[in-house]
């Protein structure tokens, strides 16, 4: 089951937040540089696409339904954005085969920024995964954020578990999005048709407060014929390492540190030798951070984790 933010016709949760943005727009007070921050997979991008459709569809047929927070699939602007051909919309995101948003993407965006608005309507520049900017692209973005052209609204999507330049943060109005556990359960149930408890092993519930996490995990399990209900975290980690599944999935490679952190937390809770577990936790946390920071050998790390922790 693939959940793509730009295709989501329904916005779940965030009712009060969305009404706040609509009010700001109606009052002509919507900031032109917005940072939507929160946990990965919480629904920040979906929120942004709904706000954009609300604005674009105001004077179109099949406009945004504000009572139900839904986009009409027959709306003209929705269809144009699906095909990435809307004249007043520009998207920047990290390419699947790349590690960072590159400076050439920012340069192309600057060309869009310098063009005239179609029909004098607001233009949106959506930068998803802004935490994936490299140094050069960050610096280039800073320059355009200092003095954006008239009628341009920047929407930056930020995973607050990562870091971005403080100078980028300081140039934007930061809106923090989050969901309560009850809301997360409700969103997942609406998307999957079943409650979290019915789909996932109890080891995997509530360790990461994001509907996107559960959807991505389910997709991974289905693609690899893994019973995500019956396999606890120990079995899941062992299977992933034994079959080198992290090499085949960028999502899984990025999620493994979260799995490992949860595994240690469970060990600390249930172990009599908490001091030893805490020492191992500290050692492997440092190694995990170095893996990501210096792009080191993941295979050696996971094999060591399996040998010393899973089988220890």
What report would you give on this structure?
The chain contains 13 helices and five strands. The protein has helices at 15-26, 44-56, 76-82, 103-113, 135-146, 166-170, 181-192, 196-199, 211-223, 233-242, 250-270, 274-294, 298-310; strands spanning 33-38, 89-92, 123-127, 152-159, 173-176. The chain has a five-stranded parallel sheet, sandwiched between helices. β3, α5 (135-146) and β4 (152-159) form a beta-alpha-beta unit. α10 (233-242) packs across α13. The longest helix is centred in the last third of the chain and has 21 residues, at 250-270. The protein starts with 14 loop residues before the first helix and ends with a helix.
In summary, what is this structure?
The protein is 49% helix and 9% strand.
Q: How would you write the strand order of the largest sheet? A: 2-3-4-1-5
Strand and helix order: HEHHEHEHEHEHHHHHHH
Mean pLDDT: 90
Proportion in helices? 40-55%
Number of strands: 5
Strand content: 5-15%
Query: Any idea what the radius of gyration is?
Result: 21 Å
Structural class by SSE content: alpha/beta
Unreliable parts:
none
Labels describing this entry:
single chain; 312 residues; alpha/beta; 49% helix; 9% strand
Helix/strand layout:
Elements: H1 15-26, E1 33-38, H2 44-56, H3 76-82, E2 89-92, H4 103-113, E3 123-127, H5 135-146, E4 152-159, H6 166-170, E5 173-176, H7 181-192, H8 196-199, H9 211-223, H10 233-242, H11 250-270, H12 274-294, H13 298-310
Parallel strand pairs: 1-4, 1-5, 2-3, 3-4
């Amino acid at each position: 089951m693939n959940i793509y933010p730009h295709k989501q016709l329904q916005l779940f949760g965030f009712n009060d937040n969305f009404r706040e943005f609509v009010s700001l727009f109606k009052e002509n007070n919507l900031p032109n540089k917005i940072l939507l921050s929160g946990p990965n997979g919480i629904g920040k991008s979906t929120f942004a696409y709904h706000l954009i459709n609300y604005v674009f569809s105001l004077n179109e047929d099949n406009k945004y339904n504000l009572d139900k927070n839904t986009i009409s699939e027959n709306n003209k602007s929705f269809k144009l954005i699906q095909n990435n051909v809307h004249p007043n919309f520009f998207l920047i995101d990290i390419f699947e085969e790349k590690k960072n948003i590159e400076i050439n993407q920012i340069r192309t965006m600057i060309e869009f920024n310098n063009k005239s608005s179609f029909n004098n309507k607001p233009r949106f520049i959506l930068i998803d995964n802004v935490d994936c900017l490299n140094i050069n692209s960050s610096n280039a973005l800073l320059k355009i954020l200092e003095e954006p052209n008239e009628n341009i609204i920047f929407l930056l999507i930020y995973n607050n578990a990562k870091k971005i330049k403080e100078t980028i943060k300081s140039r934007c109005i930061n809106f923090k999005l989050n969901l309560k556990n009850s809301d997360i359960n409700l969103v997942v149930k609406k998307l999957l048709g079943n409650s979290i408890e019915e789909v996932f092993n109890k080891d995997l519930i509530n360790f990461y407060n994001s509907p996107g996490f559960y959807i991505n995990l389910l997709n991974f399990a289905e693609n690899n014929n893994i019973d995500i209900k019956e396999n606890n975290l120990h079995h899941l980690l062992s299977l992933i390492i034994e079959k080198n599944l992290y090499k085949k999935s960028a999502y899984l490679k990025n999620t493994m540190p979260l799995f490992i952190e949860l595994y240690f937390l469970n060990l600390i809770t249930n172990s009599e030798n908490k001091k030893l577990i805490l020492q191992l936790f500290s050692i492997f946390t440092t190694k995990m951070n170095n893996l990501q920071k210096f792009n080191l050998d993941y295979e050696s790390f996971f094999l060591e984790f399996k040998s010393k922790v899973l089988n220890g």
